[in-house]
Structure formats: C-alpha cells, structure tokens
Amino acid sequence: MKKKVAVIGYGGMGGWHCEHLQNSDVAELAGIYDIKEERRELARSRGIRAYESFEEVLADPEVDILTLAIPNDCHKEDAILGLRAGKNVISEKPVTLSSADLQEMIDAANETGKLFTVHQNRRWDADFLSMKEIYESGSLGPVFNIESRVHGSRGIPGDWRQLPEHGGGMMLDWGVHLIDQILQMIPEKIRTVYAVMDHVTNELVDDGFKLDIRFDSGLLVRVEVGTSNFINLPRWYMQGRDGTAIIYDWDLSGKIVRCENWDEKDVVPVVTAAGLTKTMAPRDESTIAEHDVPKPNPDVHDFYRNVCKAIDGLEPQLVTHPQMMRVMKLMEAAFESDRQGQVIPFTYDQN
Questions:
Q1: Contact between residue 317 and residue 306 where contact means Cβ atoms under 8 Å apart
Q2: What are the b/e assignments for 102-129, b being 16+ CB within 10 Å?
Q3: Which of 4, 38, 233, 278 is the most buried (most CB within 10 A)?
C-alpha cells in the first residue's frame, strides 16, 4: 500500500515534492499545508487538498509522512511535533540550523520510533554520480585534489534566504549539498577544515564561500559556491597521479585525460613573449588518451522509494542520522574557521 505524504509548505520545493508524489509508485500526496491562504488556494485550484492548519495535518490518521518544505528555522519545531504526533518526517535541507537542534530532532525520532531523515536529493545528480564513479574506479591513479563548485551571478534569492535568523546564506543553501556529496564520495576521516565566506552582495549572511577539506590521506577537496560569477569555473575538476577528469556543467560535458606513457621524448617548449618553458608545454598526444565521462541515468525518486521501504523495515535508511550530523558539524566547523581566519582541526567524525 502506498504511503500518504502531506507536504508542509507549498512554495518552490513544496511544489516539486507534490509533482513527484502525484506520479509516485510508492507514495501518494495526501495534501499540503501552507501558512499563506493564497498558496492553499493555488493548491486547491490544482486539485490538491489543502489543510487549514498544521494541527489538522497532525490529526489526520491517514498521513504517514510529513515532508517539510518550509524556511530552515522552522524545521526543528515542526519535525519534533510531527514525530511526536506519530508521523514519519522528511525535512528539506539543511535539516536545521545547528548540531544541537539536530540532536533534539534525532532524540525525538529515537523516542518515538519514527523515521526521520533529510531530503539530500543532490545525491542523485548525474554529474556527482559520474565523478564518484571515476573516483571509485581508480582510473586516475591515487587522487590528490578534487574541486566541486556551483557558480551563478544573481546573488542570493530575495526572500528569507537573505536573513540569518531564518538560516539564510549559501553554506546552508548549496554548501549542505556539495558537502554531503563529497562525504558520500570520500570514505576517509577529515583532518582539517579551512573556509572563507564571501559577502559581496550581503553583509548579513554568506553569499558564497570557499571551503578546503583535508582528508587523512592528504587528499584536498575544495568546495566552492559563488553568486557573483559572470564566468563560471568547471562544476568538477579531479586530479590523480595518472590523469585528470573535468565536468564543465550540469549537462555532463567534460572528459577524462589519462597518461598512457610517461616516457615522453623531445618535448617541444612553449615560447612566450618573455621566454620559453618545457615544464608547462602540452604533452605529445601519443602519450595521453582521452575518454568520455560516465553518463549515469539516476532517478531522484529513489529517495522516496527508500523512505517507504525503510519505514516498513525492508531496507536501511539511506540518509542516516550520523550522516546528517557529520554534514552539520562540518558546516559549523567552516563557519568557525571563517570566524577565526585559520585552519582548524575537525574533531567530529563518524568514519
């Protein structure tokens, strides 16, 4: 039997959840609740039930799951109320604003025995899965550097995301996705964290950042978000001893270049206006081979499939409480590094 899901918040992501649930093979949309009457009316005009209050949702015995698509600062209260009302709860990311708040939410889930998770939908992005496949294949040799970034040029959206009290800023908006992806890709402990937050268009919250994560093996990962970039850098860049992989954008345009022969003869130097260089000269094409990046075809609705099976005890929960806490702790470490202006050790680790 399909699980019935009530979506709390009928904005952009709330609407996205509703569309997917209306076409789901494992769940169905019970209805929505939004504090704004005009949003409830919009739902009704589309044939979707609109509850008149959050309390009405909690009192509906047919609702199995709450999906919270509301401002970040509201996640904690509504999640705990939902869990204690006997509902399973999916929170949009970031799950909440601090590790202390997250612990309260986890405690409520443990006390009630209900499923509680966060919607880390970017685990199903094809570009991420492509790079993860390259990393795990070992085809580049030992990997020593990874860069993951998203760039835009429109600043922060002009709503609650610009305000710190609502959990605004790019670390909590996009950083949470990119960090979660990296932690799913790299099965190592983290040694240190160094972050610099940008305040180009907003002094109250970060409108971008650069975060360097050093893992135990020495691998360095740069996670970067920018909202004042009129020329974007590549979405992904991965360097190994034996090759390099690049993905330029969301469309999976990119390539893998591997060294097939280190014994290069008669290097032709590059001559510039001020001198020449052999070190930076391009390799002879006979010593390298170019390959296409993998092109996976993921289905993001596998998230809901997992949630429904996990509720019934048929498979483990994919986005776990320790994973949620590790991401939150890493974001907190990034903010602290920026505040101190220095590299700081990462003392919390689940690996």
A1: yes
A2: beebbebbeebebbbbbbbbbbebbbbb
A3: 4
